[in-house]
Design goal:
about 350 residues; alpha/beta; Rossmann fold; Dihydrodipicolinate Reductase, domain 2; nine-stranded mixed beta sheet; six-stranded parallel beta sheet; 17 strands; about 35% helix; globular
Length: about 350
């Protein structure tokens, strides 16, 4: 970057320190302030990343004319209120996923950012991973052929959230990956979920996304799994792909396998002629770059260049629309809800 971008980070819980670390490491970006309600968190972040200024008062961040952008790593219910305050203060805005807890709140942030001509970035970090970008490239180039299905499993143990159920916590990852990689959005969503503990939110959910074409996507989200799984399978007419984010090296494996249905002659139309192709398996080379670092760089350069980010407010709004439709379906025992 040509000029220095001064950023304030609001929220130093689980994700906030990761954001501070990457902001500090990005050339042309300066962390001018870190804000949190708990002083002990502020002291820890200041010590670890040599941040000079900390505050427990959000208003001080808004009043600081030297701050160009604000990064919100706060609970979902606070996104609209805090985000609108940041935008009204004339500062660019980075919001942790999802953009907001409702379609109305997300639309309000998108419209305000547009009216103020400010950049709005939604932290769908997986869109900046080399693996997901490679998957988008493979699909767009036709390497897989026509995509038939996307099947994803995202599970872990012990990460119950107080401000969101498993759909709103884990779902944004897979919905944003599917939207980005496939280059299209579903026409309808069905979801079922369950609360296994009284007083807690849904901790397990299954989502099915229906597209206009002969394409179906399915997501399994679970907070109660004994193992951490981050695996996506994509089947095409030419090749099939497995993306395992837990793998350290070969995160993507491409299978030269497929199924072809061949039309028969007049006498054999009653039976379907199916041929199976089995071939090699290989893993494409992926760059060894941290996704969050790439996201921070995109945010900073988008501000400098006056352009939209790769994960802007419109993209974030579309994910919230999908989440809201899935929640509505879940509340109605799994019926399909049009988007």
């Amino acid at each position: 970057m040509k000029t220095s971008l001064r950023v304030a980070v609001v929220g130093c819980g689980y994700w906030g320190p990761n954001l501070v670390r990457n902001l500090v490491a990005t050339p042309g970006v300066e962390v001018g302030c870190v804000c949190d309600l708990e002083q002990t968190r502020l002291d820890d972040v200041a010590r670890r990343f040599q941040v000079g200024r900390t505050t427990t008062e959000f208003e001080r961040v808004l009043d600081d004319r030297g701050i160009d952008a604000v990064v919100l790593a706060t609970p979902i219910p606070t996104h609209r209120r805090l985000g609108e305050a940041v935008l009204h203060a004339g500062k660019h805005l980075w919001v942790e996923k999802p953009l907001a807890g409702s379609v109305a709140d997300a639309e309000a942030l998108v419209n305000l950012a547009r009216d103020k001509n400010l950049r709005l970035f939604v932290d769908h970090t997986f869109l900046y991973t080399p693996a997901v970008r490679k998957i988008r490239e493979l699909i767009a180039s036709g390497e897989l052929g026509d995509v038939l299905y996307l099947d994803s499993v995202r599970t872990n143990l012990g990460l119950f959230q107080e401000d969101a159920n498993v759909l709103w916590d884990l779902g944004p990852h897979d919905l944003s990956i599917a939207r980005y990689a496939l280059g299209r959005s579903p026409s309808a969503i069905s979801a079922v979920g369950v609360r296994h503990y009284d007083g807690a939110a849904e901790n397990m959910a299954y989502l099915t996304l229906r597209y206009d074409e002969k394409l179906l996507a399915h997501f399994h989200l679970n907070w109660l799994a004994p193992v951490k799984i981050r695996r996506t399978m994509i089947g095409g007419t030419r090749r099939m792909l497995v993306y395992d984010d837990v793998e350290a090296v070969e995160k993507i494996k491409i299978y030269n396998e497929g199924v072809r249905v061949e039309p028969g002659d007049l006498e054999s139309r009653r039976r379907t002629l199916v041929s199976y192709r089995t071939g090699d398996v290989w893993s494409p080379h992926l760059e060894q770059t941290e996704a969050l670092s790439a996201a921070v760089h995109d945010f900073a350069t988008a501000i400098e260049e006056g352009r939209a980010t790769g994960s802007d407010g419109e993209a974030g709004l579309e994910i919230v629309r999908m989440l809201a439709a899935a929640q509505q379906s879940m509340d109605q025992d799994g019926g399909f809800v049009e988007i």
